[in-house]
């Protein structure tokens, strides 16, 4: 895959539909930068504006950044936990990434229902150049993808990654994948309705 982040976001808009009344989140990016100590990639900011915090087919969940220190405990962008950093088994990388990356440089932007972790490697001072790192529970190791978050997701939805990067293949070759905002999913379950059926 090429590293064309603006085109990837446009492609996501073509293949992924937001189902539900809530599409997108408004984020005070200056406040988020203060809380997290970094700015965020443009494709991610565009994704948050278009789709927001939620999941693709209840399989791939996307977090938004906290804008105050009180929010950091929720489903927000975060660094790896102290327990994960201390766990030697978490610091396993696919051959191409061995010895090149540190767990402390990872910033989590998503997760999968199969307990995979989706991150950026934040060593470059320009967030628009951050590659994606995925910890696959199936392989028990990190793999690095030289693209942004939107291009990574587009590759998933178009089944363009070889080998498949996450532990569950249920969204491979899916026709018309859907995104549901966390607020709408929660509201549906509160009234006893499964929004994914």
Report the major sheet.
9 strands, mixed
Q: Give the total of beta strands.
A: 9
Q: Could you state the order of secondary-structure elements as H and E?
A: HEHHEEEHEEEEHEH
Shape: globular
Number of helices: 6
Distance between the termini: 33 Å
Mean pLDDT across all amino acids: 92
Low-pLDDT residue intervals, each spanning 5 or more residues: none
Rg of Cα set? 16 Å
Strand fraction equals 15-25%
Domain count, please report it.
1
Describe the protein in words.
The chain is of the alpha+beta class and 197 residues long. The protein has one domain (5-190). The protein has six helices and nine strands, in the order H-E-H-H-E-E-E-H-E-E-E-E-H-E-H. It has helices at 5-15, 29-36, 42-50, 82-86, 149-157, 182-190; strands at 17-18, 54-56, 60-62, 78-79, 106-112, 117-121, 132-136, 141-145, 178-181. Strands 1, 2, 3, 4, 5, 6, 7, 8 and 9 form a nine-stranded mixed β-sheet that branches.
């Amino acid at each position: 895959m090429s590293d064309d982040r603006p085109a990837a976001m446009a492609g996501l808009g073509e293949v992924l539909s937001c189902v539900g009344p809530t599409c997108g989140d408004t984020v005070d990016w200056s406040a988020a930068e203060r809380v997290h100590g970094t700015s965020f990639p443009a494709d991610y900011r565009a994704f948050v504006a278009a789709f927001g915090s939620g999941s693709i087919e209840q399989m791939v969940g996307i977090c938004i950044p906290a804008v105050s220190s009180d929010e950091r405990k929720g489903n927000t962008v975060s660094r790896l936990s102290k327990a994960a950093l201390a766990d030697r088994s978490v610091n396993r990388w696919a051959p191409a990434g061995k010895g090149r990356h540190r767990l402390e440089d990872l910033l989590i932007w998503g997760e999968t229902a199969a307990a995979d972790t989706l991150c950026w490697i934040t060593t470059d001072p320009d967030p628009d150049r951050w590659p994606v790192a995925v910890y696959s529970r199936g392989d028990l190791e990190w793999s690095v993808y030289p693209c942004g978050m939107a291009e990574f997701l587009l590759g998933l939805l178009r089944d363009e990654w070889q080998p498949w990067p996450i532990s569950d293949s249920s969204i491979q070759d899916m026709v018309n994948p859907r995104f549901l905002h966390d607020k709408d999913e929660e509201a549906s379950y509160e009234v006893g309705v499964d929004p994914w059926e």
